[in-house]
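Batch job 17 of 40 flagged for manual review because the log was empty.
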Amino acid sequence: MKLSWQKQLALSLRQKPNPDEPLRLAVLGVGSEINGDDAVGVLAVRRLHPRFGSCGRLLLREAGLAPENFSAPLRRFAPHWVVLIDAAEMDETPGTIGWFDWRVVGAGGGSTHSLPLSVFGGFLATELGCQVGLLGVQPARIEMDAPLTLLVRAALRRLTAGLGRILEKEMNDARP
């Protein structure tokens, strides 16, 4: 039986170097607001920020097309986990949400980002000693000046609701 993305993410976040420390989590919304469904990562972080923006163990950033530009704030924050949220081609129905380890995220040329997320994930894992994962949403349209599609808009609501529940539990739970 395949676990839901929420269950996979919650189980993953429990993996950290020192289980006695409270989780330090960075969430980066990746993508372009002017390219249709590619905006999903940025919009997800924007929706989560009013609810969680002041939590000291959680760093939320709209990273746009160049998440590598946030390596200095990430280094200062010293997260156990970095979760990237982005549109991701998974050969699934548009709006499907998936949880992936950075090592299985393709390094191919189809990326709209200046640095492929697999390369950025490897850099973070090596330089910061943290875990890295991707919450991907299958896009329907990634075209210049296209609006967010209805299927991805619905996925955005599901993603922020589910991730919000996980963040609430993790940020309020100081146990290992």
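Reviewer: the log was empty due to a logging misconfiguration, but the result itself is present. The CA atoms of residues 36 and 146 lie 4 Å apart. Unflagging and moving on to job 18.
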